[in-house]
Task: inverse folding
């Protein structure tokens, strides 16, 4: 570790992993509720479990991004963090707010939570992914501002690199677009239109900047490839991400009462959205092939390559599968969407955070890389989680195709619930894959505690 | 190739491209907002509908259902439920009211929200208003949602 203050990232990463476990436990509960409809009913109804599942994901990814920034920025800026104390303070604020919110979901009915947090004063609750009480949302804004300030001051008073500036742009965008979560008009079409300014412009916009910046940082570290080369890639990837992704928001405006021209704009621009992800895959493999050193942290390299491939498959390929308006007419709001959502979030954002953790955690624990045995366990967890996520996606896709056919395409359409009964087998198989994912996650945690011989850094001769 | 496509060029594509498309997006958003009155059924937004939307939100209905295709995929689409239930708010109210407290053994069931008559009417009116939004190609594809 080059700078003492980088170690604040450790706190963030530990919290991220702990919340990740919670997310997956609730994922397994939800999967079971799909087939055993009354499981935990009425104590934990599906909507509550789903809120916990998705909100934990968002919160732990934000912990992951913040941790990644706190580790990356001092090293890039070649100075200590502007205020490590503020970083620690905001960690506790965010953790307490996050945990209280989740407990609120679980311990009282949602309507009661809305009442005691006085949602009527500034109603923002009850919309997908933005279920947090308004007071929590305000807390998120405060934490985000303090965080961006801390990171921004570090970057602006230190060495400015392309990586740190791109990361900063992404983080500022994250904070800015979240402000749309406070706009909740009664007019449903307006509500939905601007809701996507948070959701789409996060995951198909500024988060891609954060992802690309973290990936570029880790690749420089593990491959030793020249910064100039990496920065050029970084620029062109994020350029394509924003050029396609901003107007690509239109693929969410097809069927919500917005003008018809969005069907053309949304289809065309979102058809380009896989390109930046494909370039990320090319970039990662290219750079690893041209590596100038053999970094002993093989696991981190595996995660870096894995996230590039899986983001392309999940966000790029599975996104394209149902993004053209004539296709989306039939698939909108079915299990196809769920399939895409799972692999895209895992491939792009879960794996990029795990890439950063894999690279930085050993360093923060005082060694260049985890020992060989621990890395083997970590790689097992990589494969278990990744392969089971592929299967979750495939099973949901199978369920989705059948659902579209039975409920929307055939000459004698079945009702929603009758259709659900007919595709149950896919949900069972998805649940099995989900349990395998959980096993992979447990193994991942175990990998931090496996003891073995220390590894050394080997600089290889420059290949030319 | 390598000489002409420099880091500087890549950076300019990034800045130029992003700024250009952000401006286009803002323009399209203004245009969309201006056109919405013809489709978004705003003439039927009453105090009752507004209260219904608040109830919809305060009970996290989107956590199981989709509304115009967005939400969770655990329970039926509700953007056209008014049509599906024979254009009857009474049928919608009766359904919500009759959900068993302890659920249905082995099956998915909607929770019992204990709405009073006024609240039931508000939720039903909100769903009726949602059904009146003119979606492109009259989405969803058929009555089943």
Result:
């Amino acid at each position: 570790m080059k700078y003492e203050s980088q170690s604040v990232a450790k706190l963030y990463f530990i919290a991220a992993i702990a919340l990740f476990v919670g997310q997956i436990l609730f994922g397994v509960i939800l999967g079971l509720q799909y087939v055993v409809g009354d499981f935990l009913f009425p104590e934990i109804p599906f909507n509550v479990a789903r809120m916990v599942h998705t909100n934990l994901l968002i919160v732990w990814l934000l912990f992951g991004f913040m941790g990644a920034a706190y580790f990356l920025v001092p090293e890039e800026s070649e100075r200590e963090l502007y205020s490590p104390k503020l970083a620690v303070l905001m960690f506790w604020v965010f953790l307490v707010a996050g945990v209280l919110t989740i407990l609120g979901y679980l311990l009282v009915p949602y309507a009661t939570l809305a009442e005691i947090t006085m949602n009527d004063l500034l109603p923002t609750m009850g919309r997908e992914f933005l279920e947090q009480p308004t007071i929590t949302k305000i807390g998120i804004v405060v934490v985000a501002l303090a965080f961006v300030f801390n990171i921004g001051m570090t970057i602006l008073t230190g060495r400015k690199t392309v990586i740190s500036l791109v990361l900063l742009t992404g983080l500022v965008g994250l904070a800015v677009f979240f402000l749309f979560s406070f706009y909740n008009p009664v007019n449903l079409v307006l509500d939905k239109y601007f809701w996507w300014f948070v959701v789409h412009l996060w995951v198909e916009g500024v988060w891609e900047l954060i992802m690309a910046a973290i990936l570029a940082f880790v690749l420089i570290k593990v491959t030793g490839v020249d910064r100039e080369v990496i920065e050029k890639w970084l620029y062109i990837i994020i350029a394509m991400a924003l050029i396609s992704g901003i107007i690509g928001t239109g693929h969410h405006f097809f069927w919500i009462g917005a003008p018809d021209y969005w069907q053309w704009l949304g289809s065309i621009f979102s058809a380009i959205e896989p390109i930046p992800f494909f370039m990320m895959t090319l970039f990662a493999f290219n750079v690893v092939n041209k590596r100038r050193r053999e970094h002993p942290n093989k696991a981190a390299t595996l995660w870096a390559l894995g996230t590039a491939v899986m983001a392309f498959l999940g966000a790029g390929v599975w996104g394209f599968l149902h993004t053209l308006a004539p296709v989306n007419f039939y698939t909108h709001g079915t299990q196809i969407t769920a399939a895409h959502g799972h692999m895209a979030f895992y491939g792009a954002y879960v794996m990029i955070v795990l890439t950063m953790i894999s690279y930085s955690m050993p360093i923060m624990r005082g060694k260049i890389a985890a020992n060989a045995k621990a890395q083997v366990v970590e790689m097992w967890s990589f494969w278990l989680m990744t392969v089971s996520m592929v299967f979750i996606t495939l099973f949901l896709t199978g369920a989705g195709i059948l659902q579209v056919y039975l409920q929307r395409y055939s000459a004698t359409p079945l009702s929603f619930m009758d259709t659900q009964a007919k595709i149950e087998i896919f949900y069972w198989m998805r649940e099995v894959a989900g349990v395998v994912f959980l096993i992979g996650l447990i193994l991942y945690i175990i990998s931090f505690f496996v003891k073995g011989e220390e590894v050394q850094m080997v600089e290889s001769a420059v290949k030319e | 190739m390598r000489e002409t496509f420099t880091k500087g060029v890549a950076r300019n594509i990034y800045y130029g491209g992003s700024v250009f498309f952000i401006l286009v997006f803002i323009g399209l958003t203004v245009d969309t907002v201006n056109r919405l009155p013809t489709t978004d059924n705003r003439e039927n937004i009453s105090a009752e509908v507004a209260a219904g939307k608040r109830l919809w939100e305060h009970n996290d209905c989107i956590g199981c259902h989709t509304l115009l295709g967005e939400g969770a995929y655990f329970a039926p689409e509700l953007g056209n439920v008014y049509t599906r239930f024979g254009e009857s708010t009474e049928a919608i109210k009766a359904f919500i009211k009759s959900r068993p407290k302890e659920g249905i053994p082995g099956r998915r069931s909607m929770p019992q929200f204990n709405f009073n008559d006024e609240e039931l009417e508000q939720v039903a009116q909100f769903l009726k208003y949602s059904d009146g939004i003119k979606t492109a190609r009259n989405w969803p594809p058929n009555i089943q949602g």
Notes: DSSP finds five helices and two strands in chain B.
